[in-house]
UniProtKB/TrEMBL annotation, chain A:
InterPro entries on file: PaaB, PaaB_sf
UniProt protein name: Ring-1,2-phenylacetyl-CoA epoxidase subunit PaaB
Automatic annotation (TrEMBL), chain B:
The protein's name in its UniProt record: Ring-1,2-phenylacetyl-CoA epoxidase subunit PaaA
Gene3D superfamilies: 1.20.1260.10
Database matches in InterPro entries: Aromatic_CoA_ox/epox, Ferritin-like, Ferritin-like_SF, PaaA, PaaA_PaaC
Gene Ontology MF terms: phenylacetyl-CoA 1,2-epoxidase activity
Residue segments, region Disordered: 1-28
EC number(s) given by UniProt: 1.14.13.149
Entry keywords, A to Z: Oxidoreductase
Length: 95, 337
């Protein structure tokens, strides 16, 4: 028997309260509970975290890198979305 | 623990494809190389040349196998560690190696190979792993020598891999390197205890150094003239320094450490060159290295047999895990229904 039935889980760890969960790696497990147990053994051996998320890799929808231009370039020419686009006289404070 | 230049002869992995490259492919390849040259990381779903993918799958999986097989020579001593302090350290180190294997298998999987495929290659004997793990560990001093020398060589080789152009591999290496330094320090501390112990303990430490020194130098792989993959891997920024450069760094760092221990390096040609600031060392016996790669090392068969046995003996656990997961799912459904 091999492990073809063991899906891949992506593992996210919150290093400490106040910070977001961050992707740390992946592992195979029979189910989510086992994924959490194994993630604890593998990814938190030295106090790396206070909380673990295990997400089935198959459940993640990802953008296609080849769509990078159409997705992200339109943001590049919208300088008016940044505060530095607006001219405020130097005499005006706290803005 | 470690990846090494295992392939003295060119494999198809890096050979330019004999068929004509289309204009579209040429454009993609140029774009890829430009990104690598600009030190941009390549991520799993990005376009990459087939040779780059093949090279990475081979290197990362060999590295993963090395971590897993590397648990065996040290695991041999867990039950016989002389003190509880040494035992917990060794246990933690061997557990780390298992974790390193997992990080690396995961990184390899992002390139489109399955875990079962990779493990199958290891168990069938098709895959290679670091030559160093085919040596036996007959005495307790071997555990010190492995931590000090083998992990020391591994660190020398792995630190530049943290800047490898392939994102998942580089990230795995950052985690591994962070954990690896404890491995080397516990090994050196162990050697120090023996070197400062009874004459018999010191003899044991010297004997271990004698046996592990040359194999550790071989871990850096064939010399630059013999190494088939180096130039392409450098261009792809998979590799940052040549085998010989890294080997020299290791010798320069390690010789003074041996002197501190009061042990002597088993190389009559070893001398410090004050002009270059480097140690010069004797010729390496590559026939031994090649024999081990061919499967004729002292422990090649034993290692693979141990892995196969572990895999077979663990079959019921894998089956039980699947059955248990199915049962839990059923129960949850019933409760909800």
């Amino acid at each position: 028997m091999d492990r073809k039935d063991w899906p891949l889980f992506e593992i996210f760890i919150r290093p400490k309260n106040g910070l977001s969960h961050k992707h740390v790696g992946s592992l195979h497990a029979a189910d989510a509970r086992m994924a959490l147990d194994n993630a604890r053994d593998v990814y938190t051996r030295r106090g790396e975290g206070v909380s673990i998320w295990a997400v089935p890799a198959a459940a993640i929808a990802a953008s296609d890198p080849s769509d990078k231009a159409s997705l992200f370039e339109p943001a590049d020419d919208k300088v008016y979305r940044h505060p530095t686009f607006y001219d405020i006289p130097a005499d005006v404070k706290n803005i | 623990m470690y990846t090494q230049g295992l392939d003295a002869k060119a494999e198809q992995g890096n050979q330019p494809s004999p068929r004509l490259v289309t204009e579209e492919e040429g454009r993609l390849q140029q774009g890829f190389q430009d990104r690598v040259d600009a030190e941009e990381k390549i991520e799993p779903r990005d376009w990459m040349p087939d040779g780059y993918r093949r090279t990475l799958v081979r290197q990362i999986s060999q590295h993963a196998h090395s971590e897993i097989v590397g648990m065996l020579p040290e695991g041999n001593w867990i039950t016989r560690a002389p003190t509880l302090r040494r035992k917990v350290a060794l246990l933690a180190k061997v557990q780390d190696e298992g974790g390193h294997g997992l990080y690396l298998y995961s990184a390899a999987e992002t390139l489109g190979v399955s875990r079962d495929e990779l493990i199958g290659q290891l168990l069938s004997g098709k895959a290679k792993y670091s030559s160093i793990f085919n040596y036996p560990t007959p005495t307790w001093a071997d555990i010190g020598a492995i931590g000090w020398l083998v992990d020391g060589a591994a660190i020398m080789n792995q630190v530049p891999l943290c800047r490898c152009s392939y994102g998942p591999y580089a990230r795995a290496m950052v985690r591994i390197c962070r954990e690896e330094s404890f491995h080397q320090r516990q090994g050196y501390e162990l050697m120090l205890a023996l070197a400062q112990g009874t004459p018999e303990q010191k003899r044991m430490a010297q004997d271990a150094l004698n046996r592990w020194w040359w194999p550790s130098l071989m871990m850096f792989g064939p010399s630059d003239e013999q190494s088939a993959h180096s130039s392409q891997n450098m261009a792809w920024k998979i590799k940052r320094f040549s085998n010989d450069e890294l080997r020299q760094r290791f010798v320069d760092a390690t010789v003074p450490q041996a002197e501190f221990l009061g042990l002597s390096i088993p190389d009559p040609d070893l001398r410090f060159n004050a002009d270059t600031g480097h140690y010069e060392f004797g010729a390496i016996d590559w026939t031994e290295f090649n024999e081990i790669l061919k499967g004729n090392g002292p422990c090649n068969r034993e290692r693979i047999e141990a892995r196969r046995k572990a895999w077979d003996d663990g079959a019921w656990v894998r089956e039980a895990a699947v059955a248990h997961a199915a049962k839990r799912k059923q129960r949850a459904l019933k409760k909800a229904g």
